[in-house]
Amino acid sequence: MSDEVQRPAFFETWDIIRRAIYSQVAEAKRLYGAEAQNILIDEQPERTVVVRINGRPRGAVVQASISLAGDRIDITAQTDRPYGIFKNDTQVIEIETDDDRTIYVHDDERVTDPRQVADVILISIYDCFRPAA
Predict the structure, then answer these.
(1) Burial class of residue 95 (count of CB atoms within 10 Å of its CB; 0-12, 13-18, 19+)
(2) Phi and psi based region of residue 96 (left: phi greater than 0; alpha: psi -120 to 50; beta: remaining)
(3) Is residue 68 one of the residues assigned to a domain?
(4) Nearest 5 degrees, angle CA 3-CA 5-CA 11?
(5) Would you give per-residue pLDDT tens digits along the chain (133 residues)?
(6) Which 3 state secondary structure label does DSSP give 38?
(7) Which residue of 34, 50, 78, 112 has the lowest C-beta tally within 10 Å?
(8) What predicted TM-score, i.e. pTM, was given to this entire model?
(9) 53 has which bridge partners?
C-alpha cells in the first residue's frame, strides 16, 4: 500500500493557472508602476484565488475558481464605478484536454497559453489602471 496522497485531477491545471496569475500581476505592477503595487492576491482554500486592489476608492475584486471536475474556471468580477455603482460580471473559461495538452476556451477563442487565461481573469483589474477612453 502506498502512502502517497492522490491529488484531485484539477490540481495540476489550477497550479499552472495560479502561477500565471502571479506572473501577470507582477507584470502589471511593472507596467503600471507605483499605483499598481496595491494589487493583492489572496489564495483561498485549494481551488480559488481572489485578486483585488487595496486602498483605492475605485477598484475591482476578481475571484477565479476551478471546478472540482477540472473542466472550467468560473470568474466573478465586481468593479466600482462612479457614484457608488458596482458592475458585476461573471465569465466561464472551459478547459479541454487534447493529446496531452490543455486547451482553454473563452468566447469561442481557443488558447493553450495559461498567461492568456490569466489575462482574461485579470481584465477587470487591468481596466482600473488604463486611461478612460
Answers:
(1) buried
(2) beta
(3) yes
(4) 165
(5) 555 666 666 788 899 999 999 999 999 999 999 889 999 999 987 789 999 988 766 678 999 999 988 899 999 998 876 666 677 899 999 999 888 889 999 999 999 999 999 999 999 999 888 766 5
(6) helix
(7) 34
(8) 0.86
(9) 39
And the C-alpha cell for 15? 497550479
**Is 90 exposed, middle or buried (CB count within 10 Å of its CB: 0-12, 13-18, 19+)?**
exposed
2, part of any domain: no
Write out the three cell numbers for 124.
Answer: 477587470
Pairing verdict, β 109-111 and 101-106 = antiparallel
Report the number of distinct structural domains present in the chain. 1
DSSP H or E segment with residue 2: none
What is the C-alpha to C-alpha distance for residues 96 and 104, in angstroms, rounded to an integer? 6
